[in-house]
Amino acid sequence: MLACGLDFGTSNTTLGLAMANGPRLAALEGDKVTVPSAVFYGRDGAAAIGRAAMGRYAEGDDGRLMRSLKAVLGSPLIDEKTQIGRAAIGFRDVIGDFLAKVKARSEIDAGRPIEAVVLGRPVFFVDNDARANDKAEAVLREVAHGIGFAEVSCQYEPIAAAFDYEQQVSGEEIALIADIGGGTSDFSIVRLSAERHRHADRAADILANDGVRIGGTDFDRLLSLGELMPLLGYRSPMKKPGRDVPSGYFHELATWSSINRLYNSRTLRELQEVRREAARPKLVDRLIRVIAEQRGHTLAMQTEEAKIALSSADSVRVDLGWLEAALTTEITVAGLVSHTAELARRIAARIDICLEQAGLDIDDIDAVFMTGGSTRLPHVYRAIVAAAPGARVVDGDTFGSVGTGLAIEAGRRYGHG
Question: What is the mean pLDDT of residues 54-75?
Answer without folding.
Answer: 90
